[in-house]
Design goal:
Elements (H helix, E strand, L loop, with lengths): L1 E7 L2 E6 L10 E9 L2 H9 L8 E2 L4 E8 L11 E4 L9 H4 L27 E3 L2 H4 L1 E2 L6 H6 L3 H12 L6 E5 L3 H12 L4 E5 L3 H10 L3 E3 L6 H8 L5 E6 L6 H8 E9 L24 E4 L6 H12 L9 E6 L4 H10 L6 E5 L5
Parallel strand pairs: 9-10, 9-12, 10-11, 12-13, 13-14, 15-16
Antiparallel strand pairs: 1-2, 1-4, 3-5, 3-7, 3-16, 5-6, 6-8
Helix pairs in contact: 5-6, 6-7, 8-9
This protein binds nicotinamide-adenine-dinucleotide and zinc ion (ZN).
């Protein structure tokens, strides 16, 4: 089978591989559409998951099932499915303890284009099919289905980690696609006021539609000074971090009220330490919590978030700004994500031809 792969750090290309084998609990799927992720750029050009050779890329997409193992109960060939970026082993002890995303070790629930070949391929393998796949809701567009793999669940997990409550004033740092979904999630969770850090006009326009009230630029001085100016020196109840660096935590802690909570879903690609400012952390006694996590993945989350989209309560169509048709456009779509033109949120490739 043909797949689009990371050949080594900094190099991509088409390769031929054996079609994966289907174990008793597994499914083999063919992708119907795939989306490109900021993480693909980190993986290929920054070696974020390590020096992988000839590893097929892609962890966002929707698919058709072509084969299932003998013990799979709820899926059959021909079913159209949502595919989560994180596919835990649901019988692992980590999953039983509530941390499915770390099944098999730290972050090891992230398998596609990390420990095994991903979705940008004629066929791909899904472990624990009954636990990880979800039936695609009737009438859902392929573009919207792709947003459910990673952008919706990750942005919403940031909201869960920040534990947003009715009436909270919330700061969302970074309004790329993940941060935009955190804005949408914060709004749904009842935030009374949402401050968003970001300046790209396209992102600002969409963030407003999802419920952001005011905007801050990290290029116009410190985030915390701008937050304090907007909140009469009080700060915010919750912060979701969906962009920035190790230094962003300093601003997040300084922007919080005592008792506030930070939910981080941002990938920290460099730096050895996160700095927590001593005084603003209440000299160790400020009750300011910092939570960071990989999104949990799995079928239940896919079904629930899918129903938010299919019921019309969450419109994700604004995220798919660049839609291509045909396998041959995958390299172009990846390059687009690397170059990040001002009007780009997510590139999606509809795979309506044969590779
Ligand atoms: P993105 O690059 O499109 O968005 C990041 C945003 O942060 C941009 O708008 C950028 O302008 C802003 N930003 C950059 N530097 C900043 C700074 N110093 N201060 C404040 N804002 C700054 O990326 P995305 O696709 O929206 O993803 C966001 C992050 O989430 C990435 O790091 C990605 O790797 C990570 N991610 C995590 C998970 C997870 O499960 N935890 C899953 C998917 C993606
Ligand atoms: Zn992704």
């Amino acid at each position: 089978m043909k797949g689009f792969a990371m050949l080594k750090i900094g190099e991509v290309g088409w390769i031929e591989k054996e079609r994966p084998a289907c174990g008793p609990l597994d499914a083999i799927c063919k992708p119907l559409a795939i989306a490109i992720c900021t993480s693909d750029v980190h993986t290929v050009w920054e070696g974020a998951v390590g020096d992988r050779h000839n590893m097929i890329l892609g962890h966002e997409g929707c698919a058709e099932v072509v084969e299932v193992g003998s013990l799979v109960k709820d899926f059959k060939p021909g079913d159209k499915v949502l595919v989560p970026a994180i596919t835990p082993d649901w019988n692992s002890l980590e999953a039983q303890s509530g941390y499915s995303m770390h099944s098999g070790g730290m972050l090891a629930g992230w398998k596609f284009s990390n420990f095994k070949d991903g979705l940008d391929s004629e066929y791909f393998h899904v472990n624990d099919a009954d636990g990880n796949l979800a039936h695609m809701p009737e009438g859902m567009s392929l573009e919207d289905a792709c947003m459910l793999s990673d952008m919706v669940p990750t942005g919403f997990h940031g909201v869960e980690l920040a534990d947003i409550q009715f009436g909270d004033t919330v700061l969302v740092i970074g309004i790329g696609p993940v941060g935009l979904m955190s804005v949408a999630g914060a709004h749904m969770r009842g935030a009374s006021r949402i401050l968003a850090v970001g300046t790209r006009p396209k992102c600002v326009e969409i963030a407003k539609k999802y419920g952001a009230d005011e905007f801050i630029s990290y290029k116009n001085g410190s985030i915390e000074d701008q937050v304090m100016a907007l909140t009469d020196g009080k700060g915010v109840d919750r912060v979701v971090i969906a962009g920035g660096t190790v230094e962003t935590f300093e601003s997040a802690v300084k922007s919080l009220k005592p008792g506030g909570k930070i939910g981080n879903v941002n990938y920290l690609g460099s730096g050895d330490y996160i700095t927590i400012p001593r005084v603003e952390w209440g000299v160790g006694m400020g009750h300011k919590q910092i939570n960071g996590g990989l999104m949990p993945g799995g079928r239940l989350r896919m079904e629930k978030l899918g129903s938010l989209v299919s019921s019309g309560k969450l419109d994700v169509s604004m995220l798919s700004t660049h839609v291509f048709h045909g396998w041959e456009h995958i390299p172009e779509a990846l390059q687009l994500m690397k170059d990040k033109p001002a009007d780009l949120i997510k590139p999606v490739v509809i795979l309506d031809n044969t590779p």
